[in-house]
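Duplicate of #3305? Posting structure anyway:
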């Protein structure tokens, strides 16, 4: 993030989260990848609350998949 403004990476990843979620839901590899990239982006920017938010979304999406396979 430069000067408090969102970068194209953040804008595009947040748009992808919205588009994928609306099109096919959260239980798919596309969404998991988006969550992982957002977590990494926020971790690098030293925004731990946002990084944790997306880490939890990623872990929850894995839990849903694992529960379905049980």
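Output from current build:
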């Amino acid at each position: 993030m430069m000067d408090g403004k969102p970068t194209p990476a953040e804008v595009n990843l947040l748009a992808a989260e919205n588009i994928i979620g609306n099109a096919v839901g959260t239980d798919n590899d596309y969404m998991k990848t988006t969550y992982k990239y957002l977590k990494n982006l926020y971790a690098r920017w030293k925004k731990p609350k946002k990084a944790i938010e997306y880490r939890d979304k990623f872990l929850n999406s894995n839990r849903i998949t694992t529960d379905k396979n049980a």
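Confirmed duplicate; merging threads. Residues 32-62 form one domain. The chain has three helices and no strands.
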